[in-house]
Design a protein that fits this description.
The protein has helices at 7-15, 31-47, 64-74, 89-99, 111-119, 188-202, 220-231, 246-256, 265-273, 297-306, 385-391, 439-446, 484-491, 520-532; strands spanning 20-24, 27-30, 55-58, 79-82, 103-106, 129-131, 168-174, 182-187, 209-212, 234-237, 260-263, 287-290, 311-316, 326-329, 345-346, 350-355, 368-374, 380-381, 392-394, 404-414, 420-425, 429-432, 435-438, 452-463, 467-476, 503-507. It is an alpha/beta fold. Among the domains are: 9-187, ANL, N-terminal domain (Rossmann fold, 3-Layer(aba) Sandwich); 343-425, Luciferase, Domain 3 (Luciferase, domain 3, Roll); 429-532, 2-Layer Sandwich (GMP Synthetase, Chain A, domain 3), CATH 3.30.300. Strands 11-12-13-14-15 form a five-stranded mixed beta sheet, covered by helices on one side. Strand 7 (168-174) and strand 8 form a beta hairpin. The N and C termini lie far apart (63 Å).
Length: 535
């Protein structure tokens, strides 16, 4: 039988029908209800013409109903496209234009965004907009065609699927250097491969209570959702406002009796900074996982000292390789705060390679560029052969002519023991607060502001919650009197808030190198020097 992501829920609805599947605040849903309601939604979507290969955009924040939406879309043989509802309308419109969805699903919290899209003419007037709110959403600009109460008109019986495991399940749009987000195509088998491996490796089972920390447009959430549902476990979704309240976040972990925590390291660093985790805290927790950016060694030591009953695992991998491609379970407390944390070895069915600029393997301890091969690799970028061909290369190794490798853009090395290390970015892409950000997209946004003469955006390592600070140097056109407050305000209309630079320098003319290009190294040096100055 073809294995599809929605099968996890169908199988566990039979085994654990009354068991709670997902919890968030005062909302919860059982496995049986998740199965039944997603079947009804699939049939409703089919009545609007959604079928194999179509896309459905989700203007929905993290919630149990959002998972109903995801499963409902999958059960029509279509793909879902999670949208960051905090993004500006212009950026969302680029994603919608690229995805060409058959239907949009929205919620009350996204009403102002959808209004902006219709008001600016960024969505066609005949766009089919639905909701899983109890009643339709009605504004001056749109009215949803259906709502939650309409599901009862449709059968909740299982559906027949045309998809195979090689069909796409969803599109995840990441930052693009030209200012246009890139849609990463993720197949059913990509996710299933990682989920099945990780469930077996970590021993995830129906007794577990797992965290759902990342937003739905962030690929780490894919593991939270499908890893939990595949095991018949219970997913506890974390409310976004808790990220700014480390004491409340720690209390959430205690009260939810979580057995597994998974997030970006910056969240853990924030908790460590405010010293909210006590000795022998989180007694139900058995494992703590992180991915998305390097874990500061002092943060790891902080948690290992306080949680000796917990195992700690570093996962590494870009969206293009589906959640993670390597793992490293830390066997002992680091001996010093400067000890590097390995990204370990490849997960089953994956390979890590360190190659030079001729795509030749380098010797142990020699720095090269990290490449990934194996079953997690995405087919590529949605409707963008040029970017796909630039990132997904033919495997240069003998006997691998029909395989591909993915260029991560990360520098790396492998030690004499066969453990891999990630040593930072090759290019202008950075990780900040767990988000992968193309600095070029920020520059593209800045360059649309009519008062900007020239600009450059660089990243500098600052540690702590931020990790890598986004720094902007800019020069204004003659006669303009703008400051960083004006730039921040206008840039927020173009790019997501998490991409807004946090440090600024103004110039009459930006420094140039011998080739006449903006001297980014000089700018990085100046920002780093500025950060060393006493406050």
């Amino acid at each position: 039988m073809t294995k599809l992501l929605q099968n996890y829920v169908s199988e566990n609805a039979n085994r654990y029908g009354d068991k709670t599947a997902i919890v968030m605040k005062n909302q919860s849903i059982s496995y049986a209800e998740l199965e039944s309601r997603s079947n009804q939604l699939a049939r409703l979507l089919q009545s609007y013409g959604v079928s194999r290969g179509d896309r459905v955009c989700l203007f929905m924040s993290k919630s149990p109903l959002a998972v109903v939406a995801m499963l409902g879309v999958l059960k029509t043989d279509a793909m879902y496209v999670p949208i960051d509802t905090s993004s500006p309308a212009n950026r969302v419109a680029k994603i919608a234009h690229a995805a060409e969805p058959k239907v949009f699903l929205s919620e009350k919290g996204a009403t102002s965004l959808v209004d902006d899209l219709f008001e600016q003419g960024l969505l066609a007037k005949d766009t089919v907009m639905g909701t899983l709110e109890a009643e339709p959403i009605v504004t001056d600009y749109f009215r949803t065609a259906f709502a939650w109460n309409d599901l009862d008109s449709f059968s909740n019986e299982p559906l027949d699927y045309q998809n195979s495991s090689t069909d796409p399940a969803h599109l995840l749009f990441t930052s693009g250097s030209t200012g246009t987000p890139k849609g990463v195509v993720i197949k059913h088998e990509n996710v299933i491969h990682f989920v099945d491996w990780s469930r077996n490796y970590f021993g995830l089972g129906p007794q577990d209570k797992t965290s759902g920390h990342p937003p739905l447009h962030f690929d780490l959430s894919t593991f939270d959702i499908y890893g939990t549902l595949s095991a018949g476990a219970e997913l506890h979704m974390v409310s976004p406002e808790l990220n700014l309240l480390p004491n409340k976040l720690a209390d959430f972990i205690r009260k939810s009796e979580l057995t597994q925590w998974f997030s970006v390291p910056s969240t853990l660093t924030h908790m460590a900074k405010f010293n909210v985790v006590t000795e022998q805290d989180f007694p139900h927790m058995t494992r703590l996982l992180w991915c998305g950016e390097p874990m500061p060694t002092p943060t790891l030591i902080h948690f290992m000292d306080r949680l000796p009953h917990v195992t700690f695992t570093n996962l590494y991998g870009p969206t293009e390789a589906t959640i993670a491609s390597s793992y490293y379970t830390v066997s002992k407390r680091p001996s010093s705060e400067i000890e590097a944390i390995s990204i370990g070895v490849a997960c089953e069915g994956e390979e890590l390679l360190v190659l030079n600029d001729k795509l030749e393997p380098v010797e142990p301890e020699i720095i090269g560029e990290l490449y990934i091969a194996g079953e997690g690799l995405s087919p590529g970028y949605w409707h963008d052969k040029e970017k796909t061909d630039a990132a997904f290369l033919p495997d240069p190794r003998p006997g691998k002519e029909n395989s591909r490798i993915y260029r991560t853009g990360d520098l790396g090395k492998v030690d004499e023991k066969g453990l891999f290390y990630c040593l930072g970015r090759v290019d202008s892409q950075i990780k900040s607060r767990g988000y992968r950000i193309e600095l070029g997209e920020i520059e593209a946004g800045l360059n649309t502001l009519e008062y900007i003469k020239e600009c450059a955006v660089v990243g500098i390592h600052v540690g702590g919650f931020e990790g890598t600070a986004i720094c902007c140097a800019y020069a204004l056109k003659e006669g303009q009197e703008k400051d960083k407050t004006d730039l921040q305000r206008d840039l927020t209309k173009i790019i997501p808030k998490y991409m807004i630079p946090t440090q600024w320098m103004t110039y009459d003319v930006l420094p140039k190198n011998a080739n006449g290009k903006i001297d980014r190294k000089a700018l990085r040096d100046r920002f780093e020097e500025s950060n060393k100055q006493p406050a």
